[in-house]
Amino acid sequence: MPNESDSAAAADGATTDVYAVHGADPEVLAYGMAKYSRSSLSLRESLAELNEQKAEKFLNTFYFQYGHRSIADLAHLAFAIEKLSILAATILVDEPRWDGQERSTRYQDFQKSGYYVPEFGDDETARQAYRETIDFLFAEYRYFSEAMFAYLQERTPKPEEMKQDAYERTLKARAFDLSRYLLPMATNTSLGQIVSARTLENQVSRLLSSSNAEVRKLGELLKKAAREAAYNVNHAAAERALHEVEQRSSELADRVRPVLLRKVHSAPTLVKYAEANTYEQQSRRELSGAASELLGGLPSDPAPLVDLLEDEPLEVELATTLLYQCSHHSYRQIRGVVEGLTAARRAEIIDLGLHHRGRHDEVSRTYCSGQKFRFDILMDIGGFRDMHRHRRCVQILQDYTTLHGYDRPEDIDSAKLAPRYDAAMQRSRSTATKLAARPVDEAGEQSQYVIPLAYRKRALFKMDFAEALYISELRTGPAGHFSYRNVAYAMYEAAVQRYPELAKYFRVTDVREPVDLLKR
User: Fold this and answer.
1) Sign of torsion, CA 208 209 210 212?
2) Where in the chain is the domain with CATH 3.30.70.3180?
3) Cα gap 294→278, rounded to integer Å
4) 462 in Cβ contact with 393 (< 8 Å)
5) What's the CATH architecture for 78-229+412-448?
6) Which of 127, 259, 392, 403 has its CB surrounded by the most CB atoms within 10 Å?
């Protein structure tokens, strides 16, 4: 029997309506959806009466003057970012609300990718040393790709039922998993992203605030791409159709041409005020000074692959995390220093990250504290790039360095290529050290480009129990890269050691078990 509410709805003619929307400009669509809170019109009716001028006027009022930033979450934009360095790519994608895909070092051969060359001014000696080292690493990448493919073929016979091309494709991917350790951070890559205009605005501002010249340029290019006409995949087909129409009626062609070939601008209004963030720049400068003062003479202690940290008072966690991002020391080592400070000194550190905050500045990521599972992870850069995708975590990252040494895969040893591999790592470290010692402001950033993916990077991952389960289960799978498999399994082991009653909920694969290289 229908109830009274059903009858009332039927009497009013009110039935639920669900429909997809396509073809509206991102900002116009955002305006139309935002009007739900200010108008009784349906989205169809709102979009029918809207245009770019009305949308811009609305956004200028409610987004910029009144600070209703959630409106920009309604406009989603697709971008291609091509031929940027791996170093810049890791910085560009470091957004908690980022969606995208980057070129894979497993499935693509990077031999012909090329690489980024920073500005060296008149220092031709430094430029030559940089280029020679990068060219050398690319040559070694090519050698190890071929050598490890041959080695894997020898130890992994092709099953009769497996096609030759599938067999070779699978082993080449496994070989790239090994040779990628030789790729320098300067290596060109490409990626695509689909983000909200709000995320884009934050991303552009953060990139423009960077001390790295390539990263600042990326911020400028993203802002420009959002404001200029977007590439329209339908224009070629529209041109052909217009040509056919014009043969029959030039008057009709003139009438439909503005509609079919209209230029779409992704977010001309929402990103027009995105600039370098002085809050971020000034806070980074002052916190770096505090880290140098408190930790400058402290040697870095040896650290495990994964360290599950104990709880501590919130003010200790905040001060430690703020210093962590500006150093190369472990969290545990920095916490020991912070715990020895007075309460007033800890408060001063916490203040450094907040007192430059403007009216519309979001609190920085370092203040996202209080998670139960906090892992201080020291792993190779290549594996970190895979772990970096887990955006439900709060990730606090340290800069790239050669201070922590590098990883060498066991298969490199088994193939008797360890001496050649070590020589490549030592050469890259020598060049990085020399470049970093140059008396110019950009020396630190320039030196990072010659660091291969084999070198280790420290990162703090904070998460809840559900994310710890997810990462442990997903990343220990046998088809995954051995680097992050080891990290994920170490996370699992640390978690169940502290909380043994929760062990039954972790569905992990034991990384100590042999792996069938032909299974993906």
Assistant:
1) positive
2) 278-407+453-505
3) 24
4) yes
5) 2-Layer Sandwich (3.30)
6) 127
Rounded Cα distance, 81 and 190, in Å: 6
- Angle (nearest 5°) at CA 475 between 472 and 481: 150
CA distance 283 to 291: 12
CB 325 within 8 A of CB 286: no
Residue 58 — pLDDT band, cuts 50, 70, 90?
A: low
- Domain ranges in the chain with CATH number 3.30.1360: 78-229+412-448
Question: Strands 306-308 and 373-380, how do they pair?
Answer: antiparallel
Question: Other C-beta atoms within 10 Å of 221: how many?
Answer: 15
Q: pLDDT at residue 248 above 90?
A: no
d(CA 411, CA 151): 9
Tally of CB atoms within 10 A around 31: 28
A 10 A CB-CB count for 155 gives: 10
Burial zone of 264 (CB within 10 Å; 0-12 exposed, 13-18 middle, 19+ buried): middle
Residue 290 burial (CB count, 10 A): 18
pLDDT tops 60 at residue 62 = no
pLDDT band at 12 (very low <50, low <70, confident <90, very high): low
Find out whether 258 and 297 touch, Cβ atoms under 8 Å. Answer: no
Joined together, the tokens standing for residue 283 give 């806070």
Helix (H), strand (E) counts: the chain: 21, 7
Give pLDDT, residue 71.
76
The tokens describing 118, both together, are: 């920073």
Rounded Cα distance between 313 and 262, Å, is: 58
**Encoded amino acid at 517, one letter:** L
Predicted TM-score of the model (pTM): 0.89
Mean pLDDT calculated for residue range 448-472: 97
Give pLDDT tens digits for 63-106: 555 455 677 788 888 999 999 999 999 999 999 999 999 999 99
Does the pLDDT of residue 264 top 90, yes or no?
Answer: no
Half-sphere exposure of 386 (CA within 13 A, CB side): 23
Domain 278-407+453-505 has CATH 3.30.70.3180: yes
CA nearest 398: which of 303, 322, 488, 468? 322
pLDDT above 70: residue 339: yes
Q: What is the pLDDT of residues 381-408, one digit of tens each?
A: 999 999 999 999 999 999 999 999 999 9
- The pLDDT of residue 147 is above 80: yes
Show the 3-state SS of 359-409: CCCCCCHHHCCCCCEEEEEEEEHHHHHHHCCCCCCEEEECCCCCCCCECCC
Distance CA 144, CA 138 (A): 10
